[in-house]
Amino acid sequence: MNNQYNLIKINDSLLQVVRDFNPAYFVTDKNSNKMNQKLIGMWVEYLGCDRAVRQNDRIYLCKTIEDAVIDV
Predict the structure, then answer these.
(1) Is 70 inside a domain boundary?
(2) Structural domain tally of the chain?
(3) pLDDT tens digits, residue range 14-36?
(4) SS3 letters for 9-49?
(5) How many C-alpha atoms does 15 have within 13 Å on its Cβ side?
(6) Is residue 71 part of a domain?
(7) Is 45 inside a domain boundary?
(8) Quick one: CA dihedral 60, 64, 39, 53, positive or negative?
(9) Domain of 37, in residue numbers
(10) Which residues pair with 63 in a beta bridge?
């Protein structure tokens, strides 16, 4: 079991990185430099993530870490 967590902060949201990709992986049309948004969405759904973030020349598929709610 791997207990290493990769966390990134975007604005005020803390995200757990589930998987990262080279952006070129999502370019499916040889004549265009656009990433295939549908393919990214399929990966997000497959991995149970809720966000895709492009940062540091990588595509990070992430789960949002919710703030703890403590009832007193």
Answers:
(1) no
(2) 1
(3) 999 999 999 999 999 888 889 99
(4) EECCEEEEEEEEECHHHHCCCCCCCCCCHHHHHHHHHHCCC
(5) 21
(6) no
(7) yes
(8) negative
(9) 7-65
(10) 16
